[in-house]
Amino acid sequence: MQIINGKTGWVEVICGPMFSGKSEELIKRIRRAQIARRRVQIFKHGIDARYDATSIVSHSQQSIPGIAVTDVKDILELVDDRTELVAIDEGQFFSDEIIDVVNKLGNQGKRVIVAGLDLDYKGNPFGPMPQLMCTAEYVSKQLAICMICGDPANFTQRLTPSTDQIVVGASETYEARCRRHFEPT
Ligand code: ADP
Questions:
Q1: I need a labelling partner for 43 at 20 to 30 A (CA). Which of 64, 70, 115, 144 fits?
Q2: What is the largest CA-CA distance in the chain?
Q3: In a domain, 89, yes or no
Q4: What is the CATH number for 24?
């Protein structure tokens, strides 16, 4: 990835289905910034307490401590002027205000990374993710492995009957599927 040098901020989006390694990739980028002694602040949506109330935790049990917020405007209040990298996990759960917040932080000269599901369980764009992907300088789309055939998987199959867009769960509730085996419910 070509990284902009100087005082310009920028936005990176890491997207894809569940189990595609978004959290692992986010944690990797955060760790590398910390090795470079950059000032980092890490946020996740408060709704996601699957493994830990505040830490970002991947399905492979990697974790990094963060702050849980539900109102995205709180991030603007909590970010220190000196912070160089702002990382946000589960971007799809935030309101559309996240687009403004992320662009404000980027315009202040910060590097901002948002990880999130690009599609919901019906295969439709999820919350603010499409707009975030359009305004970001860098977009990384990750794929998981289809649990039926082993091909690359772009979709998140819900395994329970609920029709709410947001049902927080892990492998007991969702699995990754390719386009051939994804069955929107
Ligand atoms: P995401 O944040 O996209 O949900 P994570 O980073 O939390 O993904 O987890 C990725 C890890 O999940 C993989 O490295 C692997 O260990 C595990 N995993 C479990 N099921 C799958 C799958 N179907 N495809 C790929 N990885 C999977």
A1: 144
A2: 50
A3: yes
A4: 3.40.50.300
Question: What CA–CA distances, in Å, run from 110 to 75, 126, 141, 184?
Answer: 13, 25, 22, 38
Provide residues with CB under 6 Å of ligand 1. 16, 18-24, 58-60, 144-145, 147, 176
pLDDT in tens, 115-138: 999 999 999 999 999 999 999 999
Q: Which of 84, 90, 175, 183 is the catalytic position?
A: 90
In a domain, 84, yes or no: yes
The residue range of the domain holding 68 is 10-142
Residue at 128 is within a domain: yes
> How many other CB atoms are there within 10 angstroms of residue 65's CB atom?
9
The pTM for the full model equals: 0.93
Considering the domain boundaries, does residue 148 fall inside one?
no
For the stretch 142-154, pLDDT in tens is 999 999 999 999 9
Residues 39-85: tens digit of each pLDDT: 999 999 988 766 667 888 888 888 899 999 999 999 999 999 999 99
